[in-house]
Amino acid sequence: MTGYDEDVVAWAQEQAALLRSGRISEIDLANIAEEIEDVGKSEKRDLAKGCLPDFYCHQFRVPV
Predict the structure, then answer these.
(1) Are 9 and 2 in contact, with CB atoms under 8 Å apart?
(2) Which terminal Cβ of the chain has fewer Cβ within 10 Å, N or C?
């Protein structure tokens, strides 16, 4: 099993596989919680800067 500090991409793939297979007792709860919080903070910053709406407008071809 790959450690969070060793290779975060491999770690994330392993954690997703564990979750999907229902092996909840084997997941890295502390680091998963931290990653989820970080995603929320990043999205909040992007919304505050106005980047997220531009991204969605570009993705869905909506004029800005």
Answers:
(1) no
(2) C
Q: How many domains does the chain have?
A: 1
Q: For the residues of 6-56, what is the DSSP string, one character each?
A: T-HHHHHHHHHHHHHTT-GGGS-HHHHHHHHHHHHHHHHHHHHHTHHHHHH
**Structural domain includes residue 1:** no
Instruction: Name the residue range of residue 17's domain.
Output: 8-59
Q: Which of 26, 25, 35 has its CA nearest to residue 4?
A: 35
**Which residue type occupies 55?**
F
pLDDT digits (tens, 9 = 90+) for 20-62: 999 999 999 999 999 999 888 877 776 666 655 666 666 666 4
What pTM was estimated for this model as a whole?
0.66
